[in-house]
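We modelled the chain as a single entity of 471 amino acids. Its sequence is:
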Amino acid sequence: MRVLKHYLRLSQENLGSDLNVDIGQGTCTIKYSPKINDQLIEVPQLRALHPAQDPADTQGALETIWRLERLMAEISGMDAVSLASPGGSAGIWTNIAMIRAYHASRGEAAQRDEVITTIFSHPSNAAAAKVAGYKVITIYPDADGYPDLGALKAALSERTAAIMVTNPEDTGIYNPAIEEWVDAAHEVGALASYDQANAAGILGITRARDAGFDVCQFNLHKTFSAPHGSGGPGAAANAVSAALAPFLPGPRVEKVEGRFVVREPGDLSIGHVAPAHGVILHVVRAYAWIMALGAEGMLAASQIAVLNNNYLLKKVLEIPGASAPYATGRRRIEQVRYSWQELFEETGISSEEIGIRMADYGFHYWTSHHPYVVPQPFTLEPTECYSKAEIDEYVAARAQVAQEARENPELVRTAPHNQTVHHTHHDDLDDPERWAITWRAYRRKYFGEVPAGPAASALPDVELAVVAAGS
């Protein structure tokens, strides 16, 4: 009983989406994860399954995978879907692996050695392309925050394998010229890859196929409500056009004469990107979320997410010292990358210090807003799940900390004061020579071991390099 009380007490010291208004972790879409879906994945019939079982004994799980793939195809407008990727960055890796295999099948792999992305697309796009052996070209925005179409056209050539972009970007700005971007890529024989990590504000409004994309990826642990679980596990859905369908990872689930069968990858497939069928628990959660809301419910969720975000934008800009660089006066989609630069110049208090002080008011803080192009950044995303009162509560705390920075900067600089843990040190995670984010990576880096077991991909370092870039 004493041990139980100890861990219950520790749990009460946590901050997160189940305990407070958690809108400070922008780009991560920390929306409500329905608890009934957690009950669904705890049913013994699901927990007892093993991927090595005969498909005759796992028909329910296989049908759920098959059905969710078709729902994701409808949501994206694409022709085929795989749910094998075990995370957001893993899904982006799957995209570039399929792109590489596609060009190889046409005898153009050696020629097409460049990938183009944008600075405010998720960093995993550049990381995955780099790990896959490509030269990465990064396009910066114009004065209004839109990715520069002229710069893209200047960078495109017969060497371009793909453009890999997030839209809306991590600034919350939607690229209105996205079809022109895709058309320009296709004109030089390149493919267009759509990272839909920021899709929470556009479900039912626009689709990847509508803009002409060849491949896209959704995060089930963000847009479709599956919980992040302390940074993992995640799960991704990779959707492709018919031309890229043969390159999807395996295994594949097919319906044959009313029964569901498992097919191993074909000759053109990139093979396995994870053991078995991916993260089945997140597949169940995402399927339940979609079926509970339906098409109209998902559209409403996106509309409320955009409404909440633009209300939050208005309130944050009322705080002296806060700004929203780019597209001044324009509305954003589901999030905004703000700046405390004005407050920093006035007080010397950084965005990270303000975020940490927020913990004293009971709000989970998030200090990473990569890449650091916006000075003193903080990224907020209220999702569709918070009320006006909760948003007001959060903004009031931000405003209070900004006032403290002016009146008593040392109070903010030495925060937190009301938390069990004071400061955590980031030194190890700031040093690539010491990164060891997984047990396999730790054994490989510090002991020189080559761990036995199924590889995450054909390239041995993809696990470390892509995960380190974020999801």
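As a brief sanity check on the tokenised model: Confidence is low (pLDDT under 50) at residues 454-471. The first strand starts at residue 80 and ends at 82.
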